[in-house]
Known about the structure:
By secondary structure, the chain is mainly beta. The chain has a domain at 721-776 and 813-1097: Autotransporter beta-domain (Lipocalin, Beta Barrel), CATH 2.40.128.130. Helix content is 9%, strand content 46%. The chain has nine helices and 84 strands. Strand 54 (549-552) and strand 55 form a beta hairpin. The longest helix is centred in the C-terminal third of the chain and has 25 residues, at 723-747.
Amino acid sequence: MSRFLASVSRLSLMIAVAAMSAPLAASAADIVVPAGTTNTSAKTLVDGDRLIVQGTGALSVNGTAVSSTVATATGITISNAGTIESTASGGRAVNIGGSNNNLRSITITNAAGAAIQSQDDAVRVNVDPATGSTVTIDNSGLILSSNGGQALDLAAIASGRATITIANGATGVIRATGNDAIRPGSGIVSITNNGLIDATASASRGINVNLADLTKLTSFTLVNGVTGTIQSQDDTVRITGTAGTATTAVQVTIDNAGLIRSVGTGSAAGQAIDLDNIASSAASVTIINRATGTITSADADAIRPGQNFVLVNYGQIIANAVAVPSDRPSADGVDLQLNHTGTIYNYGLISGAKSGTTSDVGSSLTVYNYAGATIVGQDGAGVGSGGTATIVNYGTITGRIDTTSARGDGDGIDVDYTADITNYGLIQGLGAKGWDSGGRLNNSEGITMGGGTVRNYGTITGATYGITVNNDSNTDNSRSGSAATTIVNYAGASIVGQAGYAIRLENKLGTTADNDTIVNYGTIVGNGAIPDPNAVVLRQDGTPDPGSVGTLDGVTYTGTGSARFIRGDGSAIQMGEGSDILINYGTIIGNNGRAINMEGGNDTVRIMPGSTIVGLVNGGAGIDTLDYQKVGLGEAKKAALLAGQTVNIGGTLYTSFEAFAGLTQSFSSFATSGATRGIAATLDNGSTSQSASLTTQKLIDQVASASDVGGALAQLTPRTLQAYASIGIDIAQQTTDTIDQRLTNARQGVLPFDIGGLDAIAALFDGSSSRSLPGLTAADLGIASSAATAFASASPAMRPNPAFGTFDSVAAYGPGPVKAAPAVPDSPWGGFVYGSAATTRQGATATSPATRYRTAGVTAGLDYRFSPEIIAGVFGGYGRTNANLDELGSTGAVTTWLGGVYGGWYGPAWFVQGAALYGRNDYDTTRVALGTANTSSTRGDQVALHGIAGTDIRLGRVLVTPELGAQYTRVQIDGFTEAGNAALTVGEDRADSLRSSLGLRSRLVWKTSFGLLMPEWRASWQHEFLNTERDLTATFVDQAFPVPFATTAGGAGRDFGVLGVGLGAWMADRLQASVGYDLKVGGHDYTAHVVSGRLRAAF
């Protein structure tokens, strides 16, 4: 229709332009006012006449300028390119009169630059013509009434038998300075405006269809183009009638791409569009506001759309208001008024100085607010309805308060009766102030309604409350809503009360309307203080609020203003009376400690896997059922609830439940070992006065909802940290192995200063004692026996003589057990520097997770030989260990500083050597538990005592050394507190190890052209006496679970085997190198691979 009308407008404009471009030729029935002339004689037109006023011509009459009083079946035409005017006071420029019920065809064209003007009506059709009559007015110039009349007055066309077409071009102005600009009449009315339609007087309207019988208006179409403006002081566009408002079948279409505005204020204010008197269900109203369109009022509602309307908005609909400091504004963006039904499709902005939309009792509103669209009440509700409403929101619906009014309640949605609300976007109430019309303190809610359904996929939030179901203006003072309520909050959605409850259902009717249901998959959060249940709520005048009559949660109230009755009990969700059902799959948080109160009635609370509730869940009065569908509710807790006690289930507090359904399984029923019994007992015995935090509850829910509850329990324990004891014991063992290496070298007379393995990439700990040359005969080395005998009998002071330069200092030992003490070098001082790296794997056990760690470090020492038989020294070292503490992603880093003393005694046939060390460790840990990272730092220390005894036996070229040793190690780790969602406070950990070693090693020496090669094999058996199982103690940082718990930690195992091979090379007097590989296995799936490389040089 709008395209058709636009085409008609363009055709009319082309005709008008043609009229301007050249004077019209006169015909037999033409009345012509030539260009450049002024005619002062009134003109009376009969059927078939054309009045032509050429450009710069004027028909200026002191009275009515143009009239017609007879039937005009053929039609009369007025074509004006100049001026047609009445100069008389109260005169009219064009006045069509005569008898009613005659066929009339009237065409008026007013070209661009032309004028039709008078003090009274500029153009009046003062006759009610017969069926088939037409009135066509095409204006591109000025049509003006300057003193009390309409610019176009067609109101006498009252029987609905005519077709009225008005086109106002882009250059056209239709203006009245003392009355309405256009009164179109009845029948079929079509107005197209691309120019200006303007009524400037107080209480005047731009387009005013004001009929005695509204049933006579068949259709009304208004197309306001992108350049069009329609404005007035009062209503800009109004359709009204004295009769027929409830029975009219009028079809109204308003299509706006320009500006429609009411500019009046105070008593002169009006609506931009007022169709309120269209009250018939047979009528239909379509209002389209295009993206470029604005429909606005200065101090009143922007649109009153009438009955059975469809409003489609892509642009802006704005109701402004003059400030009312003593009260509040009343202007709404769209106001249905009483008993109207309609639908709003909003893609743009709807804004009201009070509410975005509103209605009174009996009205039913449907709103679709699309993505990117906004509906806002500047001092009231975004969407309000005094009746019922259906609302689907993808955009933003906002209620706020202004800065000038004395009162306001900024609710996102306010529906007094039943509402059906589906939200995918944002519904928000941003503030409230002052008192309502009943003297009650205003509050800001996301949604307040009388009952119905809310399906939330987005966000609903209120500055005070989230959702309230009630009617605080009930005459019975019960505050009850009008219908049962179902609220479904879907995954990812949220309902939040910023300063109070999230949801309160106040139904207390004593009927099925009290039976409400909430199903939550998302997040529901309540905030604010707990109201004093003994306080009295006062109205603005200081008297108690009488809206407090009825029974709530087993208590009867009699209208004394009870705060418990009016304000609630502070719970995030308050279900009211009735047999209510609450099912939770998501998260419910009561930040004041109260999450849910089912209140009166026989209610059911169903707790599903994956859900969390922070705060107290109170079954309230009645026989209430707790249907618990995950682990945590055991028989003991059921018994406690039946006894009226409060229990902690999974971090949530429960009380006042008398019946049970679902699972009956405690956490302890899934604890099958010491690794989980402690943590399970702690979870089963949580605080009965403090709820766990949301993060803690989410972790516990993962346990309670897991397919492997025992495995999930283990993740919450500190068992991951037990690897640090094994790391400390291994570091001590590797360090004493290094000391043994130095003492062996000293015993066997090798270079006094050793530098080994400084490249930590290649030099890995091997734990071996490299034998150099002892026990070899002169023949073994290709040396004359006499020379060897001389070397062996020489004193230590003589052995450095150049005569013996080809001999190693130990090369002349005879066969069999070594009987003589080794040669003593010139200086009694000796030392070493060794670098190392190692990798270790510990398999998982019932009490230990699988671990891997890599250690690199350097050890240096300095010693002094007090006699050929005794040596002693001091050493220090630094190491760094990086560990994968479990298979969940937990990691640790250990930085070690250590020092100690060592020494040895070498007898004729046996040797004894040993060391003592002390180390200080820094631990940095990230412990992963159920997908969360928990970090900590602490320190600890370790001590070790090590001793070994053995003998060197030569069998030809083979040197065999049996050894027997033992080492005691104590590792102690200080207590600490983690940071993270599963944070623990972990107590001090201490592990003791006493490990024996029985081993044998053998070397073979070959002489080559470049030096000596020394292949070696070694084997030993180690047995652990002390480091078996121990307890790690911890508590949750979250004091909802204050009971400390112990977790069994296992050692590396009892028995280990070590196998190794090596190859040494002595390439010069002062240069030796070796490589080796050792494999250590045993214990609880313990495996260590050691590759070593050493380089020794003398200085």
